[in-house]
């Protein structure tokens, strides 16, 4: 049986790592500035952290007290002083308050104001980079964090965020280095270990990646993304049975999403276990609204193993979904559904209904060569040889289907005992795509022609 195509899947998660330390930075700056408030002048300034006056320290303490219950009042408190003349710490605190309200543009502006006053303000650089990551400005985030690395001011958090940005931009080797640096400073950090595992997987270093994912799973066995990574790596190395067990384990732990369960159904179909596949598909498509394309792939899978019962059940579910969510089925999905319905009817022996589906489909898409070939095969089986040959000629004009259309046309000509014509068609097919079994067939047809 031809293996089902299994696209990689990944559990999607919100970028919690971007938000998780923002509030703690607010507190760190405010508590730190209180200790430095005695220095009204700004002598002996640390280039990486700002100092504040007594007045600014009082404003920060007042804003900190208001922030948990009334962030708007906290923002207004910090805006009392002319910020162009204030310490960069006030701009930074203001940026953090905007950040917590998810006002990213205002937060970015506040951090940029802080950096205009103190260009090496590490905490402002870190949080501005976080905003760039959320805004998908990866190049800007990378440049910020690399500057900190170049001046020796990168800590574990900076290396972690730099790794995320590099990985998103498909620089897995550089991302690996950043994650390892983060782990060197702060060992066993789960998010850095997960990032390192992803960077290894992107480099196709699956054995190392699987070992690392296994280590993380020992301490956090309910994280869906880890099981997704593990299953993908096993699929990439053709360890399908181990991938099946991994997804089943994730399912029992309650952390297998729709795509993982649907892939489990694909795996069971490949292992000639249609009942288990149907169970997996049923669960996958009940948890949330699955994509039409994913359901169509499951329908096609049952057709590939000639399981009419499973295919019919998937068709019922597809029709229910199409009635409930018609907008989710695009024209391409409608075309695919008609073709698969035709294939199901053909497998059940109802050639009349199958051809009706194919003809309807060609009215929707006159250039669907795959359907033309299915229709030609049905016409051939019904003895409509001339019509079938003409349909093959139409299909042979579509790029990418020339070879298959010519071979089918040759078979029809053999049926009509036109062996020389069949040999010509097979030679043309070989010119488009060399295939050993077609060459053997061509040799046989040449003998018959002689």
Keywords:
450 residues; mainly alpha; Serine Threonine Protein Phosphatase 5, Tetratricopeptide repeat; 25 helices; elongated; disordered N terminus
Q: How would you characterize the overall build of this protein?
A:
This protein has a domain at 367-450: Serine Threonine Protein Phosphatase 5, Tetratricopeptide repeat. It is elongated. The longest helix is centred in the C-terminal third of the chain and has 17 residues, at 308-324. The protein is mainly alpha-helical and 450 residues long. Helix content is 73%, strand content 0%.
Write the layout of secondary structure elements.
Elements: H1 16-19, H2 22-36, H3 54-66, H4 71-78, H5 88-100, H6 104-117, H7 122-134, H8 138-150, H9 156-168, H10 172-185, H11 190-202, H12 206-219, H13 224-236, H14 240-252, H15 258-270, H16 274-287, H17 292-304, H18 308-324, H19 331-347, H20 351-364, H21 369-381, H22 385-395, H23 402-415, H24 419-432, H25 436-449
Helix pairs in contact: 2-3, 2-5, 3-4, 4-5, 5-6, 6-7, 7-8, 7-9, 8-9, 9-10, 9-11, 10-11, 11-12, 12-13, 13-14, 14-15, 15-16, 15-17, 17-18, 17-19, 19-20, 20-21, 21-22, 21-23, 22-23, 23-24, 24-25
